[in-house]
Amino acid sequence: SRTKMRFEARADLAKAKIAKDLFKLMATKKTNLCIAADVTSTDEILKIAEVCGPHICLLKTHVDIIENFNISFVQALKSLAEKHNFLIMEDRKFADIGNTTALQYANGIYKIAEWANLVTVHSLPGQSIIQGIKSVAANVESRGVFLLTEMSSQGNLINDKYKEGTIKMATEGLDTDFIAGIVCQSAECFAFPGLIQLTPGVKIDEGSDNLGQRYNTPEFVVKEKGADIGVVGRGILNASSIEKAASLYRDRLWSAYCDRVGL
Ligand code: 5FU
């Protein structure tokens, strides 16, 4: 099964160039930690990127929570991504028709297409949402999307039929060369080894928050649930030292991956 394969071998099977690059980056840098930089000032995000950069494969943003967004922030974040060798994902969870999504991706204040290597997308509107994003991606080789087939939140409405349709879109659709992976909670979601499983809801102290978020440990999500990349937000951001916490999560997630593939 895909969960027993090493990232290097899976890179060869990936259809999206950006997925190949991310698999290789993880294998070389020895990290499968994605930090969710959910803070509201550009300074705080840049500090997270500088301090945690050496430990992560991916930095995930919610750009619309930033209070003082500006273009020099984007330049600074891009240079830190280059310096520390990580990719940037904007967790926008697009969910509109292709034309509107294309405008939201490339235009407005944020111009996400210019700086985010990866974006998250709901499959709800159908194939046209992927086509819309792809149509305005300047360089298709350095861009890609993750489709959601499961959410970590309590009581979400995604059912089996929706999941199956989404996986079909990711593996048999028109734009498989632009789909890097799947955001989900379990290995059963898909079988194709060329897609990357990104799993949020990761915390050393399991449990939940008071707004429906549910957490599992790094070992559980990687070994039992097939996560290739674990997303950690508050588990790191609320620690007294974010640098130490990032290092700890990195070690726990990477050791779990090594155990899983027999490294
Ligand atoms: F698609 C999903 C999902 O199913 N659950 C999530 O929690 C995305 N997320 C994101 O991961 C969410 O928007 C946060 O940015 C992050 C989790 O942050 P936490 O602080 O670790 O709970």
Rg of Cα set = 17 Å
Residue ranges: pLDDT <50 for 5 or more in a row?
none
In DSSP terms (H or I, runs of 4 or more residues), the helix count works out at 10
What is the N-to-C order of secondary-structure elements (H for helix, E for strand)?
A: HHEHEHEHEHEHEEEEHEHH
Condensed summary:
This protein is of the alpha/beta class and 263 residues long.
What does this structure look like?
With 263 residues, the chain is of the alpha/beta class. It contains 10 helices and 10 strands. The strands form 2 sheets. It has an 8-stranded parallel beta barrel, surrounded by 6 helices. Strands 8-9 form a two-stranded antiparallel sheet. Helix 3 runs parallel beside helix 4 and helix 5 packs parallel to helix 6. The mean pLDDT is 98. 5-fluoro-uridine-5'-monophosphate (5FU) binds next to strand 10 and helix 9. Pathway: Pyrimidine metabolism; UMP biosynthesis via de novo pathway; UMP from orotate: step 2/2; Pyrimidine metabolism; UMP biosynthesis via de novo pathway; UMP from orotate: step 1/2. One of its GO terms (molecular function) is orotidine-5'-phosphate decarboxylase activity.
